[in-house]
Each structure stands twice: as structure tokens, then as C-alpha cells.
Write a structure and sequence with these properties.
single chain, 11 helices, 368 residues, five-stranded mixed beta sheet, 3 domains, alpha+beta, three-stranded mixed beta sheet, Adenine-n6-DNA-methyltransferase TaqI, Chain A, domain 2, 15 strands
């Protein structure tokens, strides 16, 4: 499991713990409750691949009144030992071939993701005018910026407020939909396509944290300091969706929201948040740290051109990534069917030798 996925899972567990266990247990005792449930969930997850087949078999045995001793006495197809060895060797060889194909695709996806980050860092900090003259930004970690740009603290170009709306529902409050930590952590864009959870909030909370197009939401705590401040851009106006607990709601006033969103994605901001985070076992960012971050401020027209350029460049790479994921899914499905068909005798191993190579070659063709 890579570090990002690990951090995502840990942050998700802690966000639930804060909402469910807060005011019931002291924070230091959370792990005494969390650990047993994590172990149980892990066991459940390990059984997922065979769950449907087990339930199906159990249902059949129940309906047919077949007990376990009877089930154990059923006959299964069993090839001679030398043929078993041959099948195993063949499947090992073909599985390795398919796994190498998948590994190359996954590496390509990693490189494209790194390339996307590099493009965002470059364009948001330097602009897209290659003839622009540069000046010292006055902030050491920001370096040089185009001479007609300004650098301002976030509090001068946007309003940042940490949300205090949790997942609990109260009878005296208004019914709303809640955009929570996981919605922001897993998505770059917040739209009505997401499945928001139901909750309640006071009228003042709704007024303060209602989501509008151009707002930027950012995670404000995490298990590690380098995983704080993950942003998402609100891409439409909502009349009943509010920003949830564990998030900071940033409303632009002197800057374009889509540009601010891309600025939050830069390594400069990630590094600033990592250094500014406080904590021991869990790290957090106060609103003062958000307000103090130094923001690049090109003219608004240039901000729009920059974000449009980024949208086009990232779309190209995202399309390649989506296609690669589809190729990986298809070839993994083929691998599973190949194993099933050969082990059950539906296909003969030697006859499939060429098929695997052809299948890998044709995956891209089938997707076009």
C-alpha cells in the first residue's frame, strides 16, 4: 500500500472517530476502540473476493439440505499429477507476463501523475508567458515570479473558516447535505454528482458554510503533516450542501477560485502546510496558518488564462491515465478467466500459449 492511500485510510478513520467518539471518550483512548474494529474490517476486506461465491454456495446447500459432510464427499475434476504440474508452470509463466504488462502501465500512470504536479508547480508560479520578466517575490520559498504579479497573504484575497458542522443530526436544526473530509480528499471537484451524506445544521452555520461555485475546500488535519491541505474546487452553486467538519472553507474575494485551487495544489503550499502543522500522533492546521500563506496574485485575466491552460494540459494526461486503468482492468479480468478456464479443463494450456501475447497486444486496440 502506498503512502497516500495509507494516509487517506487513516485520516478517514480518525474523522469518523472524532465525530462518533468525541465527548464520549478522551482522544487518547480512541485507539482502544478503533483498533479492534480496524482488525475486524481488515478480516472482512480479505474475505470480499470470495464473499459472493461463499454466500451462493451456502444458499444452495441450505435449499438442497446439503450438510458439510455431504459437501466434502462431492467429486471434483482432478487431472494427473504431471498435468497439474504442467498447468501450474504454464499459469505461472503467463501470470508473470501479464503482471509485467500491468506493472509497466502502473509505472506510466505514476510518471503522468508526477508530470501533472510539475506542470501545476511551473505554470502557477511562473505563468504561461515565456517572454515575461521576473522579480524576486520577497518570500524565500516562493522564489522569483513575473514582475507584474503580486504576493499577498491569503487573508487579503479570501475568507478562510474552519467548519464546525459535524455528522450528528439534531431535531432543532435544518436538514442539509454535508460535504465531508472524504469527499474533498478523494475528489478534485465538488459537484452534485457526489453522494453527500444527510445531516443537520443551524441557520447561522448554513449561511456561513453553504457551498458556492468557486469556493475552495481544504483538509485541515491528517495523520502526517505532509498530507494536510488537500484542496477541492466547488464547481456549482448549492442551496443545501455545506462544508463539513475537518475542513477549512475558503471563499475567494480578490482572486479567482479555480486559480486559488491550483495554487493550493502546488508543492510550495504543501511544504508550507507540512512545516506549519502542529501535533504528535495527529497533525492539524489552525485558521491562522491558512490565512498566513503567501499567495501568487497575477491579474485576474491572466489567472483565467493560466487555469484554462492547465485544464487542457491536465485533461490530456488524465485521459491517458483513465485509458491505462481500463487496460489494466481488462487484462486482469482476462488473467482471472484464463486461470479459471484452464484449471477447470475448458481450455488446454498449450493452445493458450499464443493467446496471452495476442491479448496483451490487442488490449489497446479493443479500447479504441
Amino acid at each position: 500500500m502506498n503512502k497516500k492511500v495509507h494516509n487517506q485510510i487513516v485520516s478517514f478513520i480518525w474523522s469518523i472517530a472524532d465525530d462518533v467518539l468525541r465527548d464520549v471518550f478522551v482522544r487518547g483512548k480512541y485507539r482502544d476502540i478503533i483498533l479492534p474494529f480496524v482488525v475486524l474490517r481488515r478480516l472482512d476486506a480479505l474475505l470480499v473476493p470470495t464473499k459472493d461465491k461463499v454466500l451462493e454456495a451456502t444458499d444452495f446447500m441450505t435449499k438442497e439440505n446439503i450438510d458439510f459432510p455431504t459437501f466434502k464427499s462431492e467429486y471434483l475434476p482432478l487431472p494427473p499429477i504431471d498435468e497439474q504440474t504442467s498447468i501450474g508452470a504454464y499459469l505461472d509463466r503467463k501470470a508473470k507476463q501479464i503482471d509485467e504488462f500491468v506493472s509497466k502501465k502502473e509505472r506510466m500512470i505514476e510518471l503522468l501523475e508526477e508530470q501533472k504536479k510539475a506542470i501545476i508547480n511551473q505554470v502557477v508560479s511562473k505563468g504561461i508567458n515565456q517572454k515575461a520578466k521576473f522579480k524576486d517575490s520577497g518570500v524565500e520559498w516562493l522564489g522569483k515570479i513575473p514582475e507584474h504579479w503580486e504576493v499577498k497573504k491569503l487573508k487579503y484575497v479570501a475568507f478562510a473558516n474552519p467548519s464546525n458542522i459535524d455528522k450528528k443530526s439534531e431535531d432543532k436544526e435544518e436538514s442539509i447535505l454535508l460535504c465531508n473530509y472524504v469527499d474533498v480528499y478523494r475528489n478534485d471537484f465538488i459537484s452534485s454528482e457526489l453522494n453527500f451524506m444527510k445531516a443537520t445544521a443551524s441557520k447561522n452555520q448554513i449561511k456561513k458554510f453553504l457551498l458556492k461555485k468557486g469556493d475552495v475546500l481544504a483538509t485541515k488535519d491528517s495523520e502526517t503533516p505532509d498530507d494536510i491541505g488537500n484542496p477541492a474546487l466547488v464547481v456549482e452553486d448549492f442551496n443545501n450542501v455545506v462544508c463539513g467538519y475537518h475542513l477549512t472553507h475558503v471563499k475567494p474575494k480578490e482572486i479567482n477560485g479555480d486559480f486559488l485551487f491550483r495554487f493550493f495544489q502546488t508543492q510550495y503550499v504543501k511544504s508550507y502546510f507540512a512545516i506549519s502543522a502542529n501535533g504528535v500522533t495527529r497533525f492539524g492546521l489552525g485558521v491562522d496558518k491558512f490565512n498566513s500563506v503567501q499567495v501568487f496574485c497575477p491579474p485576474k485575466e491572466e489567472q483565467s488564462r493560466i487555469t484554462e491552460f492547465l485544464e487542457n494540459e491536465l485533461k490530456i494526461r488524465n485521459n491517458i491515465i483513465i485509458k491505462a486503468h481500463t487496460e489494466i482492468t481488462k487484462i486482469k479480468e482476462y488473467k482471472e478467466s484464463l486461470i479459471t478456464n484452464i484449471v477447470t479443463g475448458k481450455l488446454k494450456a498449450p493452445a493458450c500459449d499464443r493467446d496471452v501475447t495476442e491479448r496483451i497486444k490487442n488490449v489497446k486496440y479493443e479500447l479504441n
